[in-house]
Amino acid sequence: MLSYVASKLLESLALIVGVLVLVFFLVRLTGDPVALMVPKDAPQEQRETFARMMGLDQPLPVQFAQYLADVARGDLGDSLRQRRPTLDIIRERLWPTVQLALGALAFAMTIAIPLGLAAGLNPDGWIDRIARTVGLAGQTIPNYWLGMLLIVFFAVELRWLPAFGRDTAASLVLPAVSLGFAGLGQLVRLTRSTVLDVRRSDYLRTARSKGVHATGLAWRHVLPNVAVPLISVLGIQFTYLLGGSVYIESVFAWPGLGTLLEGAIRDTDFPLVQAITVFIAFIAISVHLLTDLLYGWVDPRLRVA
Amino acid sequence: MTHASGEASMEGRPKSRTENRLLHGLMRSPGGVVGLILVVLVASAAVFAPWIATHDPGQADFFAARTPPAWHPEGSLEHLLGTDQLGQDLFSRIVYGARVSLLVGVFGALSAVTLGVTLGLLAGWFEGWVDRIVSGFANLLLSIPYLVLVIVVATVLGRSLVNVILLFGITSSPVFIRFARGEVLRMKRLAFVEAAQALGATPVWVVPRHLLPNLAGPLATLATFEISAMIFYEAGLGFLGLSVPPEVPSWGNMLSLGRRFLTTHPWMAVFPGLAIAVTTLGINLLGDWLRDAIDPRARERG
Predict the structure, then answer these.
(1) Same domain, yes or no: A35 and A132
(2) CB atoms < 10 A from the CB of B254, how many?
(3) Which of B39, B133, B251, B262 to mutate to test the interface with A (most CBs of A within 10 A)?
(4) Residues A233, A185: one domain?
(5) What is the distance in angstroms between the Cα of B287 and the nearest Cα belonging to chain A?
(6) Global pTM exceeds 0.80
(7) Of A170, B40, B294, B296, which is most buried by a Cβ count within 10 Å?
(8) Coil, strand or helix: which one is B83?
(9) CATH topology of domain B37-301
(10) How far apart are CA A93 and CA B75, in angstroms?
(11) Are residues A153 and A193 in the same domain?
(12) Sequence spans of domains, chain B
């Protein structure tokens, strides 16, 4: 187990360094990072002052070393527009995004898991048909469009729920549902197919042949085995939700990391864009690491590989 | 999909069998038929746009601005789905918008398959440091949430159709890298590949003759789902103002405009979104059918 943990930790560290390299060179890929950040009609001397201020006149290796040293000290650079550390800005916007992602995950899980279980235990019944339709709908309805439909229906027509912002607890409902719907579809499909797989397994046939009651089968034998693949999918889901929240936050004017990224791009505030990307990648890699470790703990066979 | 087509390709005529199986599957799958109809519908809209559209998609008519759809009391038959705030005909813009979506989806997926399969084959065949570099690249791209990666790369590349295709080709390649690498690693140890090598065949001979034909089926399925994902993400980028230039009629650009009038003129955002949903539905149904036809065991798993 210890070498498993060590190898997973090392892998994550390598990925984080990789992300830093990628993000650093992506901005410089066009050859002229100054042109990305300064208006086209700015006079030459202003461009040069800006380049000197940002250290962009230094040779690339020097810039990169400086960048790595800053990151190691927990400094992701200053925002161009707001003129203060990007990490402070990110920290203010982190909670609303996490809240939205958790809300979406809660919505998806509370509906998907019972629905998927019921469908898998009774394939080709009417619940199964609903589950399959939901699975397909989650896959095909774009979340940003669903968000707009929900606004038109529940906020404009019925006036039940607020359409924009994050003022009351009710504000969370529509964004969380729109964001969670795709995950709901995926979770239903996964739960259903896992139940079907488990039902075909040898140990279940044994349990059935020795006379275990149908309810006992479902609770004692099927459920625990469905839980294992769910863990890894929930990890993937969470990082997917972090990314997907950019669209949803934009639709609902939700003050999280997504709208922060959108605004930073509009303002060509590249240090902030860079910092948000690194930060979100860091969270995603950490969550991935956690699910890997959890998985290895639940399923000892994985520790070998 | 393992032994059946492996044998087929050794017999030298894998095509007829696969085609039979595909047709057979299509007839038994109502979802596949619906998917095919939807995809043909959208593809014809894209190809024959000038003949189907009722108006020039870029023609502004300020007297007809914000007309509701035809069935609305204030609507008119002149503009079937209504107009936007410049008086441009929504139906015609949606028909032309199919072009951008399908171009990005098809060519984006083709680039991703080409790049991903090439890298994956190299990694799987040579292993060692080649594999470490290629797999590292794939893992790195996969470690950043996809949408954030796409947005950041789009910002750097700038707004043009070619750049958007390139963007999706690169960011979606890890799926194909992983798939091709895994398959090569597995098949390298199968008897028919080892036999070919024992007879003196070099990788240049073995890979295209023996490995690629076996990858074609699952690759087609993967690529189909990737096309629908790219259409979804491209429209989302357009919605954020990061895809093709704003004057180009695309579903994403229409959404981006329509959202500003969402509370007063909802149809401006509803119809382009519906076009995206219908297209991805068609492609997904087609993909499900393709997957079931190629791997019958997957059918029950849904």
Answers:
(1) no
(2) 26
(3) B262
(4) yes
(5) 12
(6) yes
(7) B294
(8) strand
(9) MetI-like fold (1.10.3720)
(10) 43
(11) yes
(12) 37-301
- Same domain? For A13 and A107 the reply is no
CB pair distance less than 8 Å for A27 and B156? yes
- Same domain (yes/no): A169, A243: yes
Buried/exposed code over B217-236 (b: 16+ C-beta within 10 A; e: otherwise):
bbbebbbbbbbbbbbbbbbb
**What interface predicted TM-score (ipTM) does this complex get?**
0.83
pLDDT band at B296 (very low <50, low <70, confident <90, very high): low
pLDDT exceeds 50 at position B3: no
Instruction: Check whether residue A191 and residue A269 sit in a common domain.
Output: yes
Contacts with A145 from chain B: Cβ below 8 Å: 255, 269, 273-274, 276-277
Chain A nearest CA to B243, separation (Å): 13
Task: Identify the residue with better confidence: B5 or A53.
Answer: A53
Contact B148 A148 (CB under 8 A): no
Q: Whole-angstrom Cα distance, residue B156 to residue B146?
A: 16
Q: What domain count does chain A have? A: 2
Q: Please tell me whether residues A67 and A101 are part of one structural domain.
A: no
Q: What stretches of B2-127 show up as alpha helix (H) in DSSP?
A: 3-11, 14-28, 30-47, 49-52, 90-126
Tell me, yes or no, if A239 comes closer than 8 A to chain B by beta carbon: yes
Q: Does A250 reach chain B within 8 Å, measured CB to CB?
A: yes
A14 and A149 fall within a common domain:
no
Is residue A237 one of the residues assigned to a domain?
A: yes
